[in-house]
Amino acid sequence: MKFATIILSLYLASSSAADLPASDAARKLGGKSARKLIAEAAEAEAEVEPPPPLPRSAAEISALTSSVKTIFSLEDINGILPHRYPFLLVDKVVEYEQGKRAVGIKSVTLNEPHFTGHFPDRPIMPGVLQVEALAQLAGIVCLQMEGAEPGAVFFFAGVDGVKWKKPVVPGDSLVMEVEIKKWNKRFGIASATGRAYVDGELAVELDEMKFALAK
Length: 215
What we know:
The chain is an alpha+beta fold. It contains six helices and seven strands. The radius of gyration is 29 Å and the shape is elongated.
């Protein structure tokens, strides 16, 4: 019964009992006050589960990402990073601020060789590869800054404050974001922060990662 219907019934019951003595009116309302009846009705309505969502078509689901535009495609990334399969871990870049930050996507698939052994019965993307993917995204930013050249090699110099929040598994889209904090063009040294999400939930974050441009 909807809340409005309950209130209407209560109103009618109260109206019909208006001319009765107080004791008879209370008895007609089941011995309960109007306030208590309203509270019980509201509580009963709150407990009703909402109907399940309607099925969506492939076109509707695909349209959810229609506003996300590719800035650097995989072919573009191949022209920036020296990495290649099976160690190229950024599929595309969808947000980019030159010299500052980037958002990239890694589509996780069972075809990747590390899943053969990590783990055979429960494939999980190794945490170190999640950090490597973030580092590569930072490299896409750094290798287009003054003092560096696309295709150059960056060495990992350190990483601090890494926290993994949830497993990343085949079928997931790892949405990564990095922000460049420091860049020394003279020595080719950079530091950045990074985090990555799956379905809107934080999967991994790190306080700082450092790189050194190979000389």
